[in-house]
UniProtKB/TrEMBL annotation:
Belongs to the CAPAB/TerDEXZ family. Coiled coil: none annotated. Residues 1-183 form the TerD domain. The keyword Cell inner membrane does not apply. Keywords: Tellurium resistance. This is TerD family protein. It comes from Mucilaginibacter calamicampi. Pfam families: TerD.
Length: 184
């Protein structure tokens, strides 16, 4: 039975291998343009900065150098039920310098398409055991992000040699570039 989290809530992750599933529905009739939401992963050290450029995992860099984080690929539409994008995590392979994995979802070309997260609904992040497919944690974003074009859904962090997940749900207006500036 999965644990449904509220914003700010933290929970331990017991499985060393798990998959992060991200999902959403869009209201494409509001702008006329199709939505393309993208999941990105920032693998950071204690200084809250990327370990290297290669530790930014997204649709153009699908795997971290240590093989611990693997993006399964870009979903250009978000159509259908279930996960729209997935990231596979194997904490047994992660670099010893890594202390945080930040999970961000952005809207591709949001400014040009006049799109924001206010037009996105049913957004969620879930963590499930890769082997058994048993859902461990789920966080559904319930807030209205009417001006934001990027949202940090959650973060996985190490504290006292234990990995935990925090439901973050914090938005930014500047899209992916804001997060690249913040974590680089």
């Amino acid at each position: 039975m999965a644990i449904n989290l509220q914003k700010g809530q933290r929970e331990s992750i017991s499985a060393p291998k798990f998959t992060i599933g991200l999902g959403w529905d869009t209201n494409s009739s509001s702008t006329g343009a199709a939505f393309d939401l993208d999941a990105s992963i920032f693998i950071m050290g204690d200084n809250k900065k990327l370990l290297s450029d290669e530790h930014f995992v997204f649709y153009n860099n699908l795997k971290s150098p240590d093989g611990a984080v693997e993006h399964t690929g870009d979903n250009l539409t978000g159509d259908g039920d279930g996960d729209d994008e997935q990231i596979k995590i194997d904490l047994s392979k992660i670099s010893p310098q890594a202390s945080e994995i930040c999970i961000v979802v952005t809207i591709h070309e949001a400014a040009n398409r006049r799109q924001n997260f206010g037009q996105v609904r049913n957004s969620f992040i879930r963590i499930f055991d890769t082997g058994s497919n048993a859902e461990l944690l789920k966080y559904e974003l319930e807030e209205d992000f009417s001006i934001e074009t990027a949202v940090e859904f959650g973060r996985i962090y190490k504290r006292n040699n234990e990995w935990k997940f925090e439901a973050v749900g914090a938005g930014m207006k500047g899209g992916l570039q804001d997060y690249l500036n913040k974590y680089n």
